[in-house]
Amino acid sequence: MSLSKHIQRMRDELDALEIALDDRPPPDVAGSTPRVFTRDEIGLKPVKGKPAPLSVGSMVHISGGKPPSEKMPAFRILRTMQNYHIEVKGWRDVGYNWAVCNRGHVYTLRGDGVRGAHAKGYNPTHMSVVWLGGNKHKRYRDVKPSALAFVALAWLLDGHDSKLGGAADMLGHREKSTKSCPGDEIFAWLQEHRAKRAAA
Ligand SMILES: [Zn+2]
């Protein structure tokens, strides 16, 4: 078997594994620890990241792409995103540090302590997380961020904030750009989440 066929088969097996894991009862308790997939599990190309402190806070994004499905699992979406960001955008790696999906999973992209490519002026200072969804096609536009996606988002944002000693930035992309990103639902949730944390 050729190497590329072998790699493709391994990736298909990994995609199947993700689907099997998705069949487990999801963690539906706020504050629970989500399943975190590594870059190797996703099948991302290995890339040497540029270290960055990400010490000012975090920023939330929406992919605007199709939401993951059995036909197009998150692993495959993320590998396509990585190829697009490297080959078309000319970036070093997939742009974001993390991704979350509606099954409440967390996907390691650039990961911790690595400079992202997600918002001009914020890449060395802000950890970035992207929700997979938001495609405007009529087949997908009713797929809104799920409660589990928000549990995963909160886990990432609060974890990063704790590392920074609390009271760090927790921004939606639209607060620093004219874009609508991360969409009305996620932005409303983010404002509520920040208010709850400030009151706690
Ligand atoms: Zn954005």
Task: Describe the structure in your own words.
The chain has 200 residues and is α/β, with parallel strands linked by helices. It is built from five helices and six strands, in the order αβαβαβββαβα. It has a six-stranded mixed sheet. A hairpin with a 5-residue loop joins strand 3 and strand 4 (106-108). The N and C termini lie far apart (58 Å). The mean pLDDT is 90. The protein binds zinc ion (ZN). Zinc ion is lined by residues 61, 173, 179, 181. The site of zinc ion (ZN) has 4 residues, from loops.
Which short descriptors sum up this protein?
binds zinc ion; 6-stranded mixed sheet
Number of strands: 6
Radius of gyration based on Cα positions: 16 Å
Number of helices: 5
CATH C-level class = Alpha Beta
Biggest pleated sheet: 6 strands, mixed
Q: Could you report the average pLDDT, rounded to the nearest whole number? A: 90
Q: Tell me which CATH architecture applies here.
A: 3-Layer(aba) Sandwich
Query: Numbering strands along the chain, what is their spatial order in the largest sheet?
Result: 1-4-3-5-2-6
Query: How many separate structural domains?
Result: 1
Spell out the helices and strands N to C. HEHEHEEEHEH
Low-pLDDT parts are none
Net shape: globular
Kindly estimate the percentage of residues that lie in beta strands according to DSSP. 5-15%
